[in-house]
Amino acid sequence: MSDRLHEWHGKRVLEIATEGSRLEGERDALDLIGAAYGHHPDWIALPVARCSDAFFALRTRVLGDVVQKLVNYGLHVAIVGDVSAWVAASDALRDFVREANRGGQVWFVADLGELAQRLAPRA
User: How far apart are CA 45 and CA 77, in angstroms?
Assistant: First the structure.
């Protein structure tokens, strides 16, 4: 599968393909931004499968560096998939995920359906 562009509730969401290199650091975030730029997305849906184990170990700073780079370029990011194993192993990551999901720039969602739901206007 290649990257696919969706539009949900007026937001352009670039779904990153599951296949491909894993995000290991800031350089990979720049590559991701470059690949996404031509699509003009509001959100990037990044599958968990594309994230290295180091991505979820907060002490490595990979997650923070990648998210910061994406946000600096005006992109929102949704990490899509099951992160429960990493969350169970790290109180700090559990807290990060909870706080991120309260905000509007970085979300952790189970699947694309949940992302589409969260993008819906609130009544």
Answer: 6
